[in-house]
Amino acid sequence: MSSSTPAQPSRAATSVSPGPTPPPASLTERRKAATRMEIARAAAGLFVRRGLRATRAEDIAQAAGIAPRTFYRYFASKEEAVAPLYAAGAERWGEALRAAPADLSVPEALEHAVRHTLTPGVGVSAASWELVRTLIRLTDTSPALRKVWAEVSHEAEGRLGEVLAVRLGESAVQGSDGDADNVGSGLARSPGLRFAAATASAAVRVAVEGWAAGEAPASGPKGPAAMALRNLEALRDFPWGEVARG
């Protein structure tokens, strides 16, 4: 992060509270998610050991301990099988943003979430980050994997917009009789918030991709967390107050 004194966020960006916790998933949903992640880990392990081209969907199914027909109930192709791993980081970031302390401005909450998800040992282990590096590098040579990465990134951008909308919606109704959920729903569709979510999402995605392309360790000034924090500085002067007013 820069040592310069950041611009002070507007009042609308500071007096916010974390959004409500989403309802817990059903047992069936949790089991399906667990199976998807088991398949994703099996696929990633084979991609790393054998290479993408040498790995078949049937190989992934065998490694995951499931029948090929079960594999195809969850994923349409071997490349899609790693989508849960691609999505996991963005989901953790979104949840960390949702749970960020209420006294943080939106830029501070975004940075708080980055520190709690992209720092090795806090979000994921250093070894897991090396797996992330390999999976992202594979997108350079596989159009199919690149498509999966792009789709996951786009979906994550939408979820981030929803979290930001709830947080800003709480700000917009403070001192009024408005409904934060209704305000947040409207904000999620506003061009200003969609742009902000896209920019914040890109700040983190580009940082992770840039780190993955090099050889720097996951921690330190050239790690994904440090790079994302530098990128997010661009949002410190974003007119969050105007976005909150819709």
* Uncertain stretches: 1-17, 172-176
User: Overall mean pLDDT score?
Assistant: 85
* Shape by Cα distribution: globular
What is the C-alpha radius of gyration, as a whole number of Å?
A: 19 Å
Summed up:
The chain has 246 residues and is mostly helical. The chain has helices spanning 11-14, 27-50, 57-64, 68-74, 83-98, 106-118, 126-138, 143-173, 180-188, 191-213, 224-232, 240-244. The chain has twelve helices and no strands.
Give your account of this protein's structure.
The chain is mostly helical and 246 residues long. The protein is globular. It has helices at 11-14, 27-50, 57-64, 68-74, 83-98, 106-118, 126-138, 143-173, 180-188, 191-213, 224-232, 240-244. The longest helix has 31 residues, at 143-173. The chain contains 12 helices and no strands. It holds the Pfam family TetR_N.
Summarize the helices and strands and which ones pair or pack.
Elements: H1 11-14, H2 27-50, H3 57-64, H4 68-74, H5 83-98, H6 106-118, H7 126-138, H8 143-173, H9 180-188, H10 191-213, H11 224-232, H12 240-244
Helix pairs in contact: 2-3, 3-4, 5-6, 5-8, 6-11, 7-10, 8-9, 8-10, 10-11
Keywords: DNA-binding, Transcription, Transcription regulation
Protein name: AcrR family transcriptional regulator
Organism: Streptomyces pseudovenezuelae
Provide key terms for this protein.
single chain; 246 residues; mainly alpha; 66% helix; transcription; transcription regulation; AcrR family transcriptional regulator
